[in-house]
Amino acid sequence: MPRRRQSPVERLRKREQFLACYRRGARYTSPNFIYYARPRAQDGTGVRLGTTVTKKVGKAVLRTRLKRLIKEVFRLNKDHLQQDDVDIVVVAKKNINGKSMNCQLAERELMRTVSRALREVRK
User: pTM, whole model, 2 decimals?
Assistant: First the structure.
């Protein structure tokens, strides 16, 4: 089975893109994450994802692991997300227990809140 990476058009990469999502996006929270969702002009690229994990969460290995978990959840559930043109930034809260976070827990929490955010952003 071939690996499927996020292409550059499916990711937020520049600081301006993150800041636009923070400033003009709707904010949603869950126990371990904060989400910002911002609709953008219809260009057919679908949902773009950005992840942020601060140094307050832990050392680099733990921060990278959390970012990989978030990206993997979105990669596995890409077909279930609406194909609206929306930017989403996921920020890990500083009190997250990254060592006990696994893919199932992350998927349950992320997809519940992101699907709600996409429904509300579409309105």
Answer: 0.88
